[in-house]
Write a structure and sequence with these properties.
The protein folds into 2 domains: 111 residues; 152 residues, Rod shape-determining protein MreC, domain 1 (Thrombin, subunit H, Beta Barrel), CATH 2.40.10.340. Helices cover 36% and strands 26% of the residues. The protein contains 2 helices and 12 strands, in the order H-H-E-E-E-E-E-E-E-E-E-E-E-E. Helix 1 crosses helix 2.
């Protein structure tokens, strides 16, 4: 008895032999029409078709494999190029925004009759009890305690501490800060102080004074700190309790303190030059 492996080998040899014989018989005439030639064609044709299909199938798989590998490499290259282009675009956008802010500061500096010093915000107070920022200018640049800090939109705060190259600015939304202010329309006067919700309140405004929602508040200049006429905020709501002397006025600051990045420190020329300690 022959094993299955032996029978398989013999079968493959017979198929190859028949294939060769059929090719030999069919090659004598282009189109064999009878006898062994036709018989060989009948046997060989399906085998050749199967073999050809199999080879074509394997070739397609091989070609698609290399095509997929090339496509994956190209995809990786394009992905890296896209990431680099996105990074460059973001950098250019940030530079453009910074240029717009600086141009606004320069125009404001040229428009006002004050000596100002540009500074950049480099830190914020992490404490929830104080609303302050750190700027990159200090005593070496002429900055001392008490100097007002502004931006083109309006008043930002006041310098409360100064080191050699840095200073701390207390923002007007801090409850410890105060700005003597006027209603621009009616000239009603009061004091703007910070509130706990990053807003301000307009205090000590008499109940009979004309204050309406939407009114602009400006600095009066009477506190000896902030120059007169700079915007402070906009009246958000007004409440006149019947039994009270003063109105309750909520104010929205004109400065967006969440996006504060550059400021101008107002240098008072009447102040003595600060002494710089080593």
């Amino acid at each position: 008895m022959f094993s299955k492996k032996t029978l398989l080998v013999v079968g493959v040899i017979l198929v190859i032999a028949l294939n060769i014989i059929g090719l030999s018989l069919s090659s004598r005439k282009p189109v064999p029409d009878y006898g062994l030639g036709r018989f060989g064609l009948v046997i060989v044709a399906p085998i050749q078709a199967t073999v050809t299909y199999g080879l074509d199938f394997i070739g397609d798989i091989w070609r698609h494999y290399f095509a997929l590998v090339a496509a994956a490499r190209e995809n990786d290259r394009l992905q890296k190029a896209l990431e680099q282009a996105t990074a460059r675009l973001n950098a250019c956008s940030e530079i453009e925004r910074a240029n717009r802010r600086l141009r606004s500061l320069i125009r404001f500096q040229q428009a006002i009759e004050l000596k100002v010093l540009p500074a950049e915000v480099v830190g914020k107070d992490p404490s929830p009890w104080f609303k302050s920022v750190i700027i990159d200018k200090g005593r070496a640049d002429g900055v001392v305690e008490g100097m007002p800090v502004v931006i083109p939109e309006g008043i930002a705060g006041q310098v409360v501490a100064a080191a050699r190259h840095h200073a701390k600015v207390l923002l007007i939304i801090d409850a410890n800060n105060a700005v003597d202010a006027l209603v621009q329309r009616s000239r009603a006067r009061g004091i703007v102080t910070g509130a706990s919700d990053n807003r301000c309140v307009f205090k000590y405004v008499l109940r009979q004074d004309d204050v309406q929602a939407g009114d602009i508040l400006i600095s009066s200049g009477l506190d000896g700190v902030y120059p007169k006429g700079l915007p402070v905020g906009r009246v958000a709501a007004v409440d006149r309790p019947s039994a009270a002397i003063f109105q309750e006025v909520a104010v929205t600051p004109v400065v967006d303190f969440q996006t504060l990045e550059e400021v101008l420190v107002v240098i008072d020329p009447r102040r003595p030059e600060p002494e710089v300690f080593q």
